[in-house]
Design brief:
Blueprint lengths: L2 E2 L4 E6 L5 E7 L9 H11 L17 E4 L1 E2 L2 E2 L4 E6 L21 H8 L16 H17 L3 E9 L2 E2 L8 H8 L9 H16 L6 E8 L13 H9 L5 E6 L10 H4 L3 E4 L2 E4 L7 E2 L2 E2 L4 E7 L9 E4 L6 E4 L10 H22 L5
Antiparallel strand pairs: 1-2, 2-3, 3-7, 4-7, 5-6, 8-9, 8-10, 10-16, 11-16, 12-13, 14-15, 17-18
Helix pairs in contact: 1-3, 1-8, 3-8, 6-8
């Protein structure tokens, strides 16, 4: 079941080359405004149109609200929405039933679901499925905004190129700068080098990965649940559901393993009438609960699995080794388009926790 959440339940449906992809969202309060234009704006951020270094698959991604909305307001039933798959080409995928693509889910999916599984374009394992996540995130962020919670994400690195993004910089400023270039990085100099790295990978018939950083500000102290449903547990669960995500860290993350406690602990201070910390190695979370500082999570996205270089595989029917060249239309780097997806996932995961903890509605 492709479902996430308890109070704000998100269920994705469709497949990469099927008629549509979309989402059903249960938990939107009756009477809540559903701003179709705002949702479309987030979907447009995900589209490859206007990106010189993205896939040539050109989907319009026009939002269709199927049910759960009357006169722009949620009616209390699940909100169902989708976009049509229009620029579909199945031909490049016909021969892959017996020769699984390295880096893809083809082989375990074939074993799990059998030879009839539709793996065209990745099927249900495709990044195309993230359309539904963006729709859900757009609605969730409107609910969080009422509570003063803002979420923004940006490309921190692509390949070996890393951006400068001080934690002290206002989130709105970081997001504004990131929107000024194709790769979604707030560091203009690094952005140009990132674009070069992507272009080089494409010329080589290869791909490149990177890291996206997501920040959430205004998160109320105490949001979250101890232990299994901690803020980290819930966010990591949701983020790892996004195709190509291979690692997640909060605050200092892996750097904390090289620190001493005297370095890693964030000293408490009194600032503008509230308890804050003078550093944020904890990433805004202590004991699984939000501590009032910005939540900072970084997500590692692997290089795009579909590359134009010859790769070794096996023929599942014969057991013989085989060479495979992946054809079709693919991004040489999916990191820039993943920014809005990861931002959206954090939004609906926090919304679910906020509803469960009584912080919303």
């Amino acid at each position: 079941m492709m479902e996430f959440g308890q109070r704000f339940r998100v269920t994705v449906f469709g497949s990469s080359h099927g008629p549509e992809v979309g989402v059903s969202i249960d938990g939107v309060p009756a009477g809540w405004p559903i701003d179709a234009a705002a949702i479309q704006a987030q979907l447009d951020r995900r589209r490859p149109v206007g990106r010189r270094l993205a896939t040539r698959r050109q989907e319009e991604d026009r939002l269709v609200l199927d049910s759960g909305v009357v006169d722009g307001l949620a009616d209390g039933s699940p909100v169902r929405a989708h976009v049509a798959n229009e620029d579909v080409r199945r031909e490049p995928y016909d021969r892959r039933a017996d020769t699984p693509r390295p880096g893809h889910a083809d082989y375990p999916a074939r074993v799990r679901y059998g030879p009839q599984a539709d793996l065209s374009g990745g099927g249900i394992f495709s990044g195309r499925m993230t359309v539904g996540l963006v729709i859900a995130g757009a609605i969730a962020r409107s609910m969080l905004a009422v509570r003063g919670i803002a979420i923004g994400a940006f490309t921190l690195s692509i390949g070996a190129v890393e951006a400068a993004a001080p934690e002290t910089a206002p989130l709105a400023e970081i997001v504004r700068r990131a929107a000024e270039n194709e790769v979604g990085s707030p560091d203009a100099v690094a952005a140009r080098r990132m674009e070069e790295a992507i272009a080089t990978a494409r010329r080589d018939g290869d791909s490149v990965g990177g890291v996206v950083e997501v920040r959430a500000t205004g998160v109320p102290v105490g949001l979250g649940e101890p232990f299994f449903d901690s803020v980290e547990s819930v966010l990591a669960h949701a983020l790892f559901s996004v195709p190509a995500v291979k690692a997640v860290e909060f605050g200092a993350g892996f750097r904390a393993a090289r620190m001493r406690g005297s370095e890693d602990n964030d000293p408490f201070v009194w600032e503008n009438g509230a308890v804050r910390t003078s550093s944020n190695h904890a990433g805004g979370i202590l004991g699984g609960l939000a501590n009032g500082m910005p939540i900072v999570v970084r997500v590692a996205v692997k290089p795009t699995s579909s590359i134009a270089r010859p790769q070794r595989t096996v023929n599942l029917a014969t057991g013989a080794s085989a060479d495979l060249v992946v054809t079709g239309r693919h991004d040489p780097c999916i990191v820039p388009r993943a920014v809005v997806v990861l931002e959206s996932v954090v939004a609906f995961a926090l919304t679910d926790l906020a509803l469960r903890g009584g912080f919303l509605g």
